[in-house]
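Z., the sequence and structure:
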Amino acid sequence: MASKTELANFSDPVKNYSYTDNEADTVPTFLERHATEIEHLNLSHNKIRNLSGLEMFKNLEELNLDNNQIDDSTEFPTLLPLKTLTLNNNHISELEEFLEKLLAAFPRLTYVSLLGNEACPSDVLNPKCTKELYHQYRCIVAYKIPTLKFLDFKNVTDIERAVGYRICVHQVKTGDTPATEGHDTDPTYASDSNSSNRKVLLGRLRYTYVGKNSEGNRFIRNNDL
């Protein structure tokens, strides 16, 4: 991988670039020269909240923003080619509003990972969350982003998308969230018999995602995207 100095003097196309653990709070301006060449960009483990400048990466297909300061106020520029986006361990709390932003900016997304955010109530990372909460979260994301094939570390199923439709449409009509009846037919969900709360809480619980690399990309192959 080219260094910052090497990149500045590099004349050949640069398709993959990583700028991690540098405490950057914005997209590095020195990348501007090669912005249209870069297809895979890793900016993880920085302090980025403002994505100004990202709009120059017109051919970007994969973006890693794990372990940054991305929150509900972050604005995303439109990038039509983007298919893979990892946002693990940031500060995202309002799931549905955030998903609307993603869909507007990246209409071709096939893989998203939101582990380690308040909006992602993972029972694996936080014992206070239940399998049902995580299942409902997956269903909502699957419905809201119809192009999605992978969420976090699992394939998105047609059943999840159908349940997400019932949840979101019912919520719009009544202001309430229905139980995910029929969820026992979905192999991604295991019923929690001790769970009495049947509403989508959408993750206000705090926990920490641990890991220097994206948690989801280890589980998928390039030809799956």
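Strands lie at 16-18, 40-42, 62-64, 84-86, 111-113, 150-151, 154-155. The mean pLDDT is 80.

Let me know what you think.
H.
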